[in-house]
Design brief:
The complex is a heterodimer of chains A (about 725) and B (about 150). With about 725 residues, chain A is of the alpha+beta class. Helices cover about 30% and strands about 25% of the residues of chain A. Chain A has a 7-stranded mixed β-sheet. A 5-stranded mixed β-sheet of chain A has the order 2-3-4-5-6, with helices on one face. Chain A has a 5-stranded mixed β-sheet with strand order 16-24-23-22-17, with helices on both faces. In chain B, helix 3 packs across helix 6. The chains are: A alpha+beta (about 725), B alpha+beta (about 150). The complex binds FE2/S2 (inorganic) cluster (2 copies). One FE2/S2 (inorganic) cluster binds next to loops of chain B.
Chain lengths: ~725, ~150
Amino acid sequence: MASVKTTLNRRSFLKVSALAGGGLMLGFNWACKPAPAASALKAMPESWYGINAFLKIGENGLVTIMSPNPEIGQNVKTSMPMIVAEELDVDWRDVVVEQAGLDTQSFRRQLAGGSQSIRQGWKGLRMAGATARRMLLEAAAQRLNVPVDELTTDAGIITHAGTGQSLGYGDVASEAASVTVPEEVELKDPKDFKIIGTTRKNVDALKIVTGEPLFGLDFHRDGMLIAMIEHAPAFGMKLKSLDATAAKAMPGITDVITIDAAPEGFDEQWSDVNAFPEKVVVLGRSTWEVMKAKKALVIEWEADSKLESTADHTEGMAGLLQSGRAEVARRDGNPEAAFQNAAQVIERTYSAPFLAHNTLEPMNFFADVKEDSAELVGPIQTPEFLRKSVSSILGLPEDKISIMMTRMGGGFGRRLYGNFGVEAAAISQAAKAPVKLVYTREDDMTQGTYRPAYQVIYRAALNEQNELIGFHVRGVGIHGSPVFANRFPAGTVDNYLAENLELDSNVSTGAWRAPRSNFIAGAEQSFLDEVAEAAGKDPIDFRLELFDRAIANPVGERNDYDAERYAGVLRLVREKANWGADMPGVHRGVSAYYCHNSYVAQVVDLVIEDNQPRVQKVWCAVDCGIVVNPGAARNQVEGGIVDGIGHAMYSALSFQEGRPVQRNFDSYRLIRQAEAPREIETFFIDNGIDPTGLGEPSLPPVSAALANAFAKATGTRLYDQPFSSNMEAVELSEPTG
Amino acid sequence: MALFNLTINGEQHQVDVVPDTPMLWVLREHLNLVGVKYGCGIAQCGACTIHLDGVAVRACSLPVSSIGDRAITTIEGLSPDGSHPLQQAWLEHDVPQCGYCQTGQIMNAAALLAKNPSPSDEEIDRAMQGNICRCGTYLRIKAAIKTAAAG
Ligand code: FES
Ligand code: FES
């Protein structure tokens, strides 16, 4: 058996101890930090890259793995323990997974996000399992009085072939606690994996389908009050006056107060995108009574900055794109000359609106603040940051504040920003009572933290031979440019220019699933489709030629992708989808993109039925290295595709004088069952490379595969999201003959 | 406040609430049946789906005073232990991501299958159109409904 020797970082193990009642407990650091790609992770805190956990082996042989990082539907609560169990060599059925609370004494950096959990955890998780296995083996060797390397393990049983003796892990777990932590451990050869690479079902699935309390909103504590907030109805407004007489007189209402959740000197941490820290709060016995009292509040708001409308945003960004002074993010060769000498120049502009996260479970948090301590419970991706800001607002030391993470009814980036937890704490302190803060859907949708609105101009220069000789991308956003200067097609063109612009606004924005990529991938890959068409080339061949260039002779040194792996997913999807086959009535579009260290290529098959476009099938090739849990990985890929199609097609958040126009799902359109693709087939590249991100990468490219298929079907290109509002103008008919 | 007698999952319950309280909050806060979820409050997302005499309804928009003696079924009463064919099919297809919408999806699908034991894809599309899954598990939802129907 070929095996990998790994030097163990001694600090990876925080403590080894005997369990009360017998057994072994290891506290270990889940993370070995690979250097994060700076550009991909720009907006994310350094501390996302570490997690650690407890591993407990009981005398009964049952293994408990504490899952320290929050579960938002990305399935890490199943997939990460699988990696530990693999190297430990136990039967998955003997593994119990438990969610840990925030505990910085035992764990460090309990955070989740950026599609990094598996990638960052991979080595540490494997070493933790392998180390525990090694210690159990040494304990068994002592007990049986045989050399340790004559022992083998299988599914939690240690066997000595020579004497035929065997012991269960549970039999030696207590003794293993006194074994010295080994300096080195052997990791399995990936080809010997028994758990990794097999589908293991969601450990919480039964609880989910039977409706057990799991989510923050389900949390209940006897005697708690329900708190709901009223924030300014428009960005740029603040509270002028409040008359709560009528509301306070309503049944079930205990009080109406105002809070400032970001006072002078407050340590904002990740709650800093909150546009409305000043809030009116209604407290009462039940949610319905509080909801009704909210409507009875008489509040005057006044403008304290500009009340912006969508037209201001659109024109403002267009103006900057036309004539704004941009930051040059990358420049290769002489782009101006290339465009001057071009035989053909193609220029297109793309745009997308603000989007709300709209996790199906609205923001909520429980807080019980006492004189000298505080307890918080709720759905949060960044509990450690939340505790810092709660400590700051309450004036309590961090070690007097406990935070328990619940399962989250969706994240998509929204629950990185813990302002709702800070608010719950401030309300509980003011009310001197345990409270559960609950946002209505309207509160949730109108409070900001949106995916930025974007525009981008692409220009391509082709020479007489239809070769790409110049490329120019110029992007603007509120807030931040969507452009990744060092991603494809940078590195494939001699003359290249990438420029960034930003429009200021009082609308608050934040990270939304696959930040920036969620827009720029669709724009770039739609544009390249048109460039290929102008060059008279097949869109896949055209991209592969560019990758050949990047492999043989790349331009520049800072290219943030591996051209071989990129080309690999395109080739795989071409083969699987049988690209180029004659399929009457089916219109096909292709797209490929790289983000979160993973590569995705997709083909969309579009049909026109009843004068409506319908996605018949999405073919998806993914290179994310080793796939830990294929069934769960497919689920993530499918979700990303549905999410990407849905938001590109239907969703938008617009403004009228600072007010969000869409406030609930009657006006904010989300994709539904009848609009989802009929079929999605996912193919993973099998290359044995350490795993990379999967929660986000399938989302960004799919809008372009859809738009490119739509262009094939109708001859009309889609430049502005949401596509559905542009499709109405297009004559759609089923093909005749 | 007023007293209401309700039949929920085959048992009698009495609650003392304001008459316009939606069943969603009666179930969640007064009877501790939290499988019914709040997503929108305006009958647009389906997270709060329950059965009223076997018909799927949106509990967020159903005042307790309108129930009368009709029988309510929630996810907790669909089966005692998760053994309903739809719950089993949900497990088989490993449908949930975040899981928040799924009880509403299952309740809506259960009402569909009770009426139409072997729905076509188009009938599933139409019947499930009112239930949002923000995580995008629609394909697995449809596959699980078909598995349950075939079983
Ligand atoms: S909460 Fe009732 S339909 Fe959304
Ligand atoms: S599984 Fe998350 S909303 Fe459906």
